[in-house]
Design goal:
Blueprint: H1 2-21, E1 42-48, H2 63-76, E2 83-89, H3 98-101, E3 105-113, H4 116-124, H5 134-145, E4 152-158, H6 169-178, E5 183-189, H7 194-207, E6 211-213, H8 217-234, E7 240-241, E8 257-263, E9 268-275, E10 279-288, E11 299-304, E12 310-315, E13 324-332, E14 362-370, E15 384-394, H9 407-436
Parallel strand pairs: 1-2, 1-4, 4-5, 5-6, 7-8
Antiparallel strand pairs: 2-3, 8-15, 9-14, 10-13, 10-15, 11-12, 11-14
Helix pairs in contact: 1-9, 2-4, 2-8, 5-6, 6-7
Region (Disordered): 329-358
Signal peptide: 1-26
Keywords: Membrane, Signal, Transmembrane, Transmembrane helix
């Protein structure tokens, strides 16, 4: 009984501490009313329903049953703003006429706001049937998604290589990429076959997508959800392809925007950004973990002066997704002269120039580094997919008074709050025991 009363006293103390520290600061609204609303993310799932999907080799279940379960879970978890379509291949023609079977692809759910019941009902009726016209299905899926200012994504799930070429699916992927249709194809392989792996890897690489082998229902469901989430996270701005250099002097000069590149294992890739003295640089990088890695790995983003002095760095940070590693930083040229220490909390670091001219851009070098090591048997080429986001905004003046963003002030406030919590909990506990303990 006394233990229960002490627990109650502690809870009361914690509640009091929360009230003492006050509410969390409100987030700033950066929305520009003059900006047109972004297009919704558009994704099409392309499912192989050819005869080989009858194989019962995934935990004792057929490949098609595992795929159907994954689709149902993905549809249930689909963000409301995502426009989803579903296309199948090899689903309707059971005969042996290859000419007919290789035209067997249909869109069973049009791209648009999803009716979850309709989508799950359409997938539930699928039965493994015919040939595997992957190339044709990709070409038709690109038409289903249409064109626009933002990236479209195709997620291809198959257990076998194309049996109908031409068109060769890898050539179709290159063709779509060359057309500038802003289309990314991610591929998921359900069979541990080397030919299938090479073909799906080729398709993904040609369009800037990723390849993953899924050997269980959990892997397949989780990976599809990740890819749909990625479409939601990145659809508003289409990345521009850029090639980082081996050093700052030869690095490409980048304006604010979103860029995509590829980085080999344990490589450093350099970029340059013009930043005026009255501006603040904000940059982030994400590297997709599209192949097996050794357990210890990290990504590092640094800003340096052209002479090599480090201004600020941002180490890797968890984003809640297992397929991406990210890092970010902020820096402005408004720090004190002669201060050689970068400040990770505020983004202020050393000045690139001792007396910068507000009208003259100053070049800041960005370097993306990784400490990745491939697992045994993992390919090393091409490099890992990199997405670099750069923004340059007006520098924010340093507040005159203390605020919760300062490391020492925040630590002091948390310490005081903890002491008050402990003191209040102790007083309440002693009072409770003294008053009610003997009853």
């Amino acid at each position: 009984m006394i233990i229960e009363k002490r627990r109650l006293a502690v809870l009361v103390g914690l509640l009091a501490a929360i009230l003492l520290t006050g509410p969390a600061p409100a987030a700033a609204d950066d929305h520009d009313d003059d900006e047109p609303p972004p297009e919704p993310p558009r994704v099409e799932l392309v499912l192989d329903v050819s005869g080989s999907m009858r194989a019962a080799d995934i935990g004792g279940r057929t490949r098609i049953a595992v795929a159907q379960q994954a689709f149902n879970e993905v549809v249930d978890a689909l963000p409301d703003e995502t426009q989803l379509g579903i296309r199948v291949l090899g689903a309707t023609y059971p005969g042996k006429d290859k000419k007919v079977g290789c035209r067997d692809t249909q869109q069973i759910v049009p791209v648009g706001p999803v009716d979850r019941n309709q989508a799950k009902a359409a997938v539930a009726t699928l039965r493994p049937t015919g040939f595997t016209p992957v190339g044709l299905a990709l070409r038709e899926a690109a038409k289903d998604l249409g064109t626009g200012a933002t990236t479209r994504r195709i997620v291809l799930i198959t257990d076998g290589e194309d049996t109908c070429a031409p068109p060769d699916p890898c050539e179709v992927a290159r063709e779509l990429a060359a057309q500038g249709t802003k289309l990314v194809v991610d591929t998921l392989g359900l069979a541990p076959d080397e030919k299938v792996r090479r073909q799906l890897l080729c398709i993904a690489t040609a369009t800037g997508g990723t390849y993953t082998a899924a050997q269980s229902a959990e892997e397949l469901t989780g990976r599809i959800k990740q890819l749909v989430d990625r479409a939601r996270d990145t659809y508003t701005r289409t990345p521009t392809t850029v090639g980082g250099a081996a050093g700052c002097a030869d690095a490409p000069l980048l304006a604010p925007g979103v860029y995509t590149d590829r980085e080999r294992f344990s490589e450093h890739r350099w970029y340059r950004v013009p930043v005026r003295a009255d501006q603040e640089l904000r940059a982030s990088v994400s590297i997709s973990l599209d192949r097996p890695l050794r357990p210890d790995h990290a990504v590092l983003l640094r800003a340096t002066a052209p002479d090599g002095r480090e201004l600020v760095r941002g180490s890797d940070a968890g984003s809640g997704r297992t397929d991406v590693l990210s890092a970010g930083l902020r820096w402005s040229a408004t720090g004190d002269d002669g201060d050689d220490d970068a400040d990770d909390d505020t983004g202020a670091g050393t000045e690139v120039s001792a007396t910068p001219d507000a009208d003259r851009p100053t070049t800041v070098c960005l370097v993306v580094s990784n400490a990745f090591a491939p697992a045994a048997g993992t390919r090393t080429e091409p490099g890992m997919p990199v997405e670099l986001t750069i923004d340059v905004v007006d520098a924010s003046p340093t507040p005159d008074g203390p605020d919760l963003g300062r490391g020492w002030v925040l630590l002091l406030l948390l310490t005081v709050a903890g002491l008050l919590t402990g003191l209040l909990a102790g007083v309440l506990t002693r009072w409770w025991v003294a008053t009610w303990g003997e009853k």
